[in-house]
């Protein structure tokens, strides 16, 4: 059993002069772990895309569905990369409800995420936190928390929920995903959510560009990708139906909570199995 990460007694130094993606996403989910600079950007995004908070909640809803699917296919351990700040329903809450023997390792290098994550999990014996950079698969997979908590000889659910858009180089993203998948056996899964921009001159493309440009003011490396680029990332995997789709295509109409012509079209999801 891996040693518990000791919760930090004092919140680590954080940058207060510029927004944090982790804190911004927490705001979209209704959280309170933010500063004025984050709240200002939050309001500016809402002016362009008022559905953004609902989209963030639907992203979490989808991830919950994906976790339950993986458990149903004999996956009982999860690696949540770039997990951000804790917000219910958390990965470990969903996984442990579906399987009391599940193991979850969260990975992030955001200072506030580390502090809050370690504090939340201080007394949890099934869930762990690794302070690491998801863009370096080797260092993540060799992290002592990961190697002691997870059995990489058994299937692993790799979760990349709204994180790959932080990496502007698509070739690097493909290498990164390939690195994680190479380390886990057949029967493992990749759960992916990613904002899209087809850049095709359509009204939807212009809407995506407006949201992307606003976020780039604070996060210059942020990159929405075209659906074809996301298809390249999951190439070679077995896509669970309905495949790589926007959120309006994942659930049947009766289960939709977002407008089929609005912000839900900007978020693509895919659950894919390693053959």
CATH superfamily: Vaccinia Virus protein VP39
Determine the CATH topology.
Rossmann fold
CATH classification, class level: Alpha Beta
Using only C-alpha atoms, the radius of gyration works out to: 18 Å
Low-confidence stretches: 1-13
Notes on the protein architecture:
This is S-adenosyl methyltransferase. Pfam families: Methyltransf_19. The protein is an alpha/beta fold. 40% of the residues lie in helices and 14% in strands. It has a single domain, classed as Rossmann fold (3-Layer(aba) Sandwich). Strands 1, 2, 3, 4, 5, 6, 7 and 8 form an eight-stranded mixed β-sheet that branches. The radius of gyration is 18 Å and the shape is globular. The two termini are 29 Å apart.
Task: Describe, in short, the structure shown.
This protein is an alpha/beta fold.
List the helices and strands and how they pair.
Blueprint: H1 21-28, H2 36-48, H3 52-72, E1 77-81, H4 91-98, E2 103-108, H5 111-120, E3 127-131, H6 137-141, H7 144-149, E4 157-161, H8 170-182, E5 189-195, H9 203-216, H10 227-233, E6 238-239, E7 245-246, H11 247-250, E8 267-273
Parallel strand pairs: 1-2, 1-4, 2-3, 4-5
Antiparallel strand pairs: 5-8, 6-8, 7-8
Helix pairs in contact: 1-2, 2-9, 3-4
List keywords for this structure.
alpha/beta, eight-stranded mixed beta sheet, SAM-dependent_MTases_sf, Rossmann fold, single chain, 275 residues, 8 strands
């Amino acid at each position: 059993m891996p040693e518990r990460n000791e919760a930090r007694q004092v919140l680590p130094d954080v940058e207060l002069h510029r927004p944090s993606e982790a804190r911004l996403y927490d705001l979209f989910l209704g959280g309170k772990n933010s500063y004025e600079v984050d709240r200002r950007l939050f309001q500016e995004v809402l002016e362009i895309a008022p559905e953004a908070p609902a989209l963030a909640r639907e992203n979490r809803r989808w991830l919950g569905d994906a976790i339950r699917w993986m458990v149903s296919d004999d996956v009982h351990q999860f690696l949540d990369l770039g997990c951000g700040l804790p917000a219910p329903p958390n990965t470990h809450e969903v996984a442990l409800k579906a399987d009391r023997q599940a193991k979850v390792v969260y990975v992030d290098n955001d200072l506030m995420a580390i502090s809050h994550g370690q504090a939340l999990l201080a007394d949890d014996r099934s869930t762990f936190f690794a302070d690491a950079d998801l863009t370096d698969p080797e260092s993540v997979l060799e992290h002592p928390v990961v190697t002691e908590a997870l059995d990489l000889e058994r299937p692993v659910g790799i979760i990349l929920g709204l994180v790959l858009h932080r990496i502007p180089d698509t070739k690097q993203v493909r290498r990164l995903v390939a690195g994680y998948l190479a380390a886990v056996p057949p029967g493992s899964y990749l759960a992916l959510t990613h904002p899209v921009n087809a850049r095709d001159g359509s009204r939807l493309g212009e809407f995506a560009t407006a949201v992307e440009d606003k976020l780039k003011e604070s996060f210059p490396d942020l990159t929405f990708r075209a659906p074809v680029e996301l298809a390249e990332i999951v190439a070679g995997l077995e896509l669970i139906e309905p495949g790589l789709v926007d959120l309006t295509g994942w659930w049947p109409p009766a289960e939709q909570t977002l407008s089929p012509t609005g912000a839900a079209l900007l978020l693509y999801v895919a659950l894919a199995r390693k053959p």
